[in-house]
Specification:
The protein is of the alpha+beta class and 229 residues long. It has two domains: 2-186, 2-Layer Sandwich (Nucleotidyltransferase, domain 5), CATH 3.30.420; 192-229. The chain contains seven helices and ten strands. Helix 6 crosses helix 7 (163-186).
Length: 229
């Protein structure tokens, strides 16, 4: 629903949600524009409906952005502008929890900014950010980009950086992260800790390959070998 307040980051399992993703002209949440928005509605863990539209940003799409997402000026010249697409997206998400990767720092800022501009209010849906979830559930990983997580779980990254493909990837990763969280909460999975300072150990790469290093580096320099079965 549209409101004047922001939703909350709940970072937990929900069976009904909408996973969404944006592609933009750049990384500035102040000046860049949306060029694609996609979403998948999930009910009881099963995808039931998709939403996906290209958006005319009414400006040139920089070559750097096109190199990442494959979207150029020619592709969006006949597409609707975001003031037309956004209300359809708001209608699609209803009051479902929103799920996405790095949405707290990126995607939601575009949604809030443009909702305020075009509609005078913002969607107050609670949300789950799979980036913060992954950092909690898989602190041993050195990077938590969506492609890193997908490869960690053996999920195909083909078509990454187009919004709908990223939604499909994120949905699968979210479901698996929820399983990780359940294992942590039950005590069946234990995150490695530094035996000197108690901080979480992180998987790192060095001159001689992978190793576990204390997250307290450089104050704590404890390391462990990675044991491969």
């Amino acid at each position: 629903m549209l409101n004047k307040k922001f939703g909350k980051n709940i970072d937990r399992f929900v069976s009904d949600y909408v996973v969404f993703d944006l592609e933009t002209t750049g990384i500035s949440t102040y000046s860049d524009k949306v060029v694609e928005i996609s979403a998948i509605k999930v009910i009881e863990g099963k995808p039931v409906e998709e939403f996906s539209e290209l958006v005319n940003p009414q400006c040139h799409i920089p070559a750097g952005a096109s190199a990442v997402n494959g979207i150029d000026d020619e592709m969006v010249k006949e597409a609707p502008i975001f003031s037309e697409v956004l209300p359809r997206f708001i209608e699609f998400i209803e009051d479902f929890v929103l799920v996405g990767h790095n949405i707290e720092s990126f995607d939601l800022k575009f949604i809030y900014r443009d909702s305020e501009t075009f509609l005078g209010k913002i969607p107050d849906n609670d949300y789950v950010d799979t980036l913060s979830m992954a950092r909690k559930c898989l602190p041993e990983m050195s990077h938590h980009r969506m492609t890193d997580l997908a490869m960690h779980y053996g999920i195909s990254t083909e078509g990454a950086h187009r919004a709908l493909n990223d939604c499909r990837m994120t949905r699968q990763v979210y479901e698996l992260l929820c399983s990780e969280m359940k294992l942590l909460e039950s005590g069946k999975k234990v995150i490695p800790k530094c035996k000197y300072c108690g901080r979480t150990m992180k998987l790192r790469n060095g001159k001689f390959g992978e190793f576990f290093g204390c997250s307290g580096y450089p104050n704590c320099r404890y390391t462990e070998k990675v044991k491969r079965v």
